[in-house]
Amino acid sequence: MLSYSLPTEALSHCAQPVKQIIPLTKKTEPKEPQRTVGFFQLFRYATCCEVFLMVIGLLCSAIHGIALPLMCVVFGDMTDNFVQSGQQYFTNLTSINDLILELNAYYFVGIGCAVLLLGTFQVMLFLLTATKQTKRIREKYFHAILHQQMAWFDTHQIGVLNVRMTDDINTINEGLGDKICVFVQFFCTFLTGLIIGFVFGWKLTLVILAISPLLAGSAAVWSKILATLTSKELSAYAKAGAVAEEILVAIRTVVAFNGQKKAVEKYENNLEDAKNYGIKKAITTNVSMGLTQFVIFGAYALAFWYGTKLSVDEPENYTIGKTITVFFSVMIGAFSLGQGAPNLEAIAKARGAAYEVYKTIDQVPRPIDSSSKEGHKPDHVRGDIEFKDIHFNYPSRKEVKILQGVNLTVPRGKTIALVGASGCGKSTTIQLLQRFYDPDLGQITLDGHDIRTLNVKWLRENIGIVSQEPVLFGTTIAENIRYGKADATDEDIERAVKEANAYDFIAKLPDKLNTMVGERGAQLSGGQKQRIAIARALVKNPKILLLDEATSALDTQSESIVQAALDKARAGRTTIMIAHRLSTIRTADVIAGFSNGQVVEQGTHRELMAKKGVYYSLVMQQVLPPPGCIPNANPSPVLYSHALEGENGDLGGNSIHRVSLRRKSTKKKPKKSKKEKKEDESNLPDVPLSRILAMNKPEWPYLLFGVLASLVGGGVYPCVAILFAKIIGVFAEIDPEVKRQKTLMFSLLFLLIGGVAFVTYFIKGFMFGKSGELLTMRLRKQVFNAILRQEIGWFDDHENAVGVLTTRLASDASLVKGATGARLGLLTNCICTLTIAIVVAFVFCWQLTLLILACVPFLIGANFIQMRAMAGHASKDQGALEQSGKISTETVENFKTVVALTREDVFFYKFMDSLERPYKNGLVKAPIYGLTFALSQAIPYMVNAAIFRFGAWLIAHCYTQYENVFLVFSVIIFAAMNIGESSSFAPDFGKAKTAAARIIKLLEKDPEIDIYSEEGKKPSDFAGNIEFRGIHFAYPTRQNVKVLQGLNVSVGPGQTLALVGESGCGKSTSVQLLERFYNPAEGQVLVDGQDAKTLNLAWLRSQLGLVSQEPILFDCTITENIQYGDNSRVVSQAEIEEAAKKANIHDFIMGLPEKYNTSVGDKGTQMSGGQKQRIAIARALVRQPKILLLDEATSALDTESEKIVQQALDDARLGRTCIVIAHRLSTIHNADKIAVIQNGQVAEQGTHTELMAKEGAYFALVNAQVNH
């Protein structure tokens, strides 16, 4: 009879939250008490129809809750009949009892059928409504994020938003689902139990209730502690997750500076806290479960002892049947509250997760809301812009004044250029015009209207922007351009592409406009990306054009043509240009010089040159020697106008996203077919249990003690069952005294068993908790280590995108934990229980045992079906939601671009489409899961009916005694319950196997280029002789595009080699091959005459100092960022300051409030492009490399800094071999050797003078820069 299987059930329910710990839910401030939404608030997104369905579901669960106490009544009645048959063993009344027993059996069947129906509906209705609500919440949350203002993003980490989008909303889904109806079911069981108890025997009920507060109280305290520990554990892991994400995004920087070791240490330090909370949690859980057991068995003892006393004192009111009915009704009632607790906990977690999510959705009013319909929409735009006394500082850094009274007028159709040092507020001005922020004081007007009175979306739609960092999305070139104008025709796109001079390179691509650009446009070079971004701005034919360093990432040839295209595009449009490279703005109608957040001078080029102020000094610094001139000869001011025209290539680096040295790791490809996906899954090795357990080997002492405790624990239930049957047997005794003595003895034995149960639970909890958390931490560290060990080509594969890898780190290791210690304990426990149970049962009544064993598969089957239903959908859901995760991540990370293009809705609908599949799956899954849940609930009633019907027949025909029937029944049912409980862990096991397989596959993968390998030579003296010999190369993810096709070039020790050529011709690629990010397909990279492959990798990289075009900084202080340059030792503060002085950033740092301890922000966002670049230069100089690699190193700097940093780099180059990549030829005319690369080969090489004399490719490039 299932009623007293209830301790096991209660405990299996209690155990559930323990298993399902999926890390990564971020709570913002772990110190504060967790804030939650109200219970009814959780359901605020349900429609009336859904509320109605939930009410029906609740009614079904309420009626379902009555079933178990009802069964107690039937069972008690039946027990009385059995006992009577025992006392009348030698009389002829058995036939009457037989009929009554038969009737009882039919009651069981009736209850079972009702349960089947009600159970199906209660779960199905709730899962259906939860699926619908969750989809709605995801959509609303994503919509809310898309319409936040920019200042909100400055204070919210992107990583945290993505976690909310996935994990927190999954938690809400859990809370909205069947947890509530299951709780109501338990609550009704509690009420009915109490009512039945008082009706059938109020004295005994009161005694048992005296114990109930203990149970209920302990359950409440425990769930509170557990909830606190869970949230602490999750926020502790979230920190580690953020560290992992930051490192994986910057993987190229990490490997270039040999930072893997530091990265793993940083990650590991953050894991420590999560491990400690996890252990505390496992112990807490098990101690509370042990205590619960102890109290339950204490209650058994008390109830039977007192029940016997009452049956002797008041035989007319208390028979054994009534005692059992009362005892189990009240106990089940008390327990049901305990069993409901985990369900309430899921709801509490959901309320916690919903707080931040709903808060974001509700964030109104948003002063700048692009979805708002409010605001004036003029019929046409003339394009008169005026900035009146603008004061502004960024909300996230109130103390730093950016603009301090800017006054500026831009007449319609005119071009105004903003010039000045990095960080002086030029880009900020443009952001204010787009209303990313509102000024603190002053106003900006468009055609006389304050832009705050205009409709935000309308305003942005009339502005075309080409920014310093062109962001492309992971789709086709055509789609990227169409983001500029949703209804653009193919002709419009083609026109824009031609205007932006992108037509030729696109025509050469295999899929032309339908070529996928990769995540963030990683498959294209910087110049190519920039031209597509220009096409995107031009396609909507805007009245106002903002060019924030629009041509900086282009090589000379493209630059002059694109510049001409932009000049054409400017005609008739109001244009604001920002440039460090003054040649591009000479033709502007007005040039405004910025300094310290103010406009200090305005005028045309000639007027400002005559003034000899800020602009004049900038121009004089940028003069390039004319062709054939001796390098470094002092330029005469008379030449300034020519020089200026040719000046090309500054600020390539604030076009932060050129391919360069960090060809972005997370590349996206077209979606794969299901078949391919399956093949990927089947690629995973099959992992036997022994292999998974072997992962836990270092913790074997813990496991051993845990298993021993489980072995002892396995004997607990059979013992309880035997005692239970014996006590019922005692009631057949006629002598009251014997009855009393026997009951007392058995009651004390119950207490003893309770003590044993408590001890075994505690030992199990501690041992398995500790071993599981140690394993999780070790695996996370190993997996992270293995990820960092892979070659860069591995990261280029879209299956190893940063998002996918961080999710794996979060969940895979903690899933494996579920398959080791705790599972081993369960298996031991089950085997022990089952063995004892079957042996005992066969000894006492073999006929009934056979029948029960025949029914056991049904009981196990019931649990199994339920488990399969859940597990089957888990992987499907995950895969489908990954797609929406990718869309949300890409959108949020490139939020500025999405907003500037006013394409929030496009991405929103894309996101909604990606939710369709998991949503439909959810709807299909609900009825299946409902039915399986109901089956698992109803089968036990049917089995009970069969057993007692047959038991009655056996007694009636004198094959056995009633006591034996009870003994056999209880022993086997307890065992079956135990097994049922363990199989409920199986979904974990399925996932754990897959997770373990993924981990093992990764740990066993030997990368082609292994940074951890100690092999290879480490020459003691290193001259710095570099040669590329016959190099052929294509990127692993694009084998059909040949980048290098027979590159031959060398540079001697201490010499400087400059590589020049068009974007995408293979300049940066050659530097990546020297860094050994990739191996060439053919040919050799020789270092001091030795093949780079034969040298120790870490040693080789430690000789190279890399300054790339897109500097990636880590979210820590400036000091730590510069120290990162040399990870092999502790870099002193003096060295850091020395490097900073050389990179011309020292004075700027000293001007900051926190000086060197200033945090640079996530990915360095608190710094301007030029500041980031100078910190990156200091980072490279601090390691004192033998070879310096400068990939557009000064391109992100304004003229003044550029000149000084160029001087610093020239000093740094002395005595070092140096490879420089530059579009701006002024920076390389004094190189020892200049190589022009075309189509992956060297077209010509020599010094500046030699190449100018040749009048070949280089001559043409220089001329293009002088005469455009």
Our count of helices gives: 42
Largest sheet: 6 strands, mixed
CATH topology-level fold name of one domain: Rossmann fold
Gyration radius from CA atoms, angstroms: 37 Å
Helix share bin: 55-70%
> How far apart are the termini?
93 Å
Strand order of the largest sheet: 6-7-8-3-9-10
C-alpha geometry: elongated
> Under the CATH scheme, which architecture of one domain would be assigned?
3-Layer(aba) Sandwich
Low-confidence stretches: 1-31, 624-680
What class do helices, strands and sheet pairing give? alpha/beta
Report the portion of residues in β strands.
5-15%
Mean pLDDT: 76
Give the strand tally.
20
CATH top level class name of one domain: Alpha Beta
The CATH superfamily of one domain is known as P-loop containing nucleotide triphosphate hydrolases
Structural overview:
The protein is of the alpha/beta class and 1268 residues long. Among the domains are: 385-611, P-loop containing nucleotide triphosphate hydrolases (Rossmann fold), CATH 3.40.50; 1020-1103 and 1194-1267, P-loop containing nucleotide triphosphate hydrolases (Rossmann fold, 3-Layer(aba) Sandwich); 1111-1184, Rossmann fold (3-Layer(aba) Sandwich). It contains 42 helices and 20 strands. Helix 7 packs antiparallel against helix 27. The longest helix has 54 residues, at 260-313. Belongs to the ABC transporter superfamily. ABCB family. Multidrug resistance exporter (TC 3.A.1.201) subfamily. Its main location: membrane. Its EC number is 7.6.2.2. Residues 55-349, 704-991 form the ABC transmembrane type-1 domain.
